[in-house]
# Entry
Amino acid sequence: MTLAYNGLCLDVRGANSANFTPVQVYTCNGTSAQQWSFVQAGTTLHALGKCLDINGGGTADGTTVDLYDCNNTAAQVFIPEANGALYNPQSNKCLDDTGWGGSGTQAEIWDCTGNSNQNWTIP
# Structure
C-alpha cells in the first residue's frame, strides 16, 4: 500500500512481527513488512501474519497504529473509502501519515480530511 502524496509504503518497523511493533510510512522496498492484504471481506489489514491495530482501541486524534494479533475487535477494522482513505468506524477516523511526517513516521488515526496524507493506494 502506498501513500498518494509521497509514494511511501505502509511498513511494519524492522519487519518485526511482535505485538505493538509500530506501523509506519517508509520508503518502498518490497519486503514482507510492506505486503499488506485485506482479510474478512476487506475490513482487516494483515502483514507478517498479524493485523493493523489501533493502539489500545483508542479513538482520539493522534492514536498510533501497531501490528497486533488478529482478535476481531473494532480497533482492527479499516474500510477502504472511494477517496483512498482507510476508515475505522469505531473511532470515526482515518489512517493518517502523522503530520505529513514522511519516511519513518509512525502512522496514526485522525479525523478524515480527504487530504493526500490519508489517500492510500491499495494493490
User: Anything to note?
Assistant: The chain has one domain: 2-115. The CA atoms of residues 16 and 33 lie 8 Å apart. Residues 2-115 form a domain with the Trefoil (Acidic Fibroblast Growth Factor, subunit A) fold (CATH 2.80.10.50). The chain has a mean pLDDT of 94.
